[in-house]
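Narrative of activities, Objective 1.

The group set out to show that a structural description can be obtained from nothing but a protein's sequence at a throughput compatible with the screening campaign. Below is one input-output pair from the validation batch, recorded exactly as produced.
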Amino acid sequence: MVYFDPKFSTSYSSLILQIVIDTISICVAISESYHLCMFERRRQKMRWL
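Output recorded for this entry:
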C-alpha cells in the first residue's frame, strides 16, 4: 500500500483540475477565434459577390 497524505492528494487533484480547466478554456478560446475568423472571411467573400 502506498500511503498518501490527504492534504497532498487534495492539492494534487485540485492542481490537475485547474490544469484541465485551463486547457479546456484555452481550447474553447482557440476554437471560438477560429470560427470567428472563418465567419469574417466568409462575410468578406459574400461582400465581393
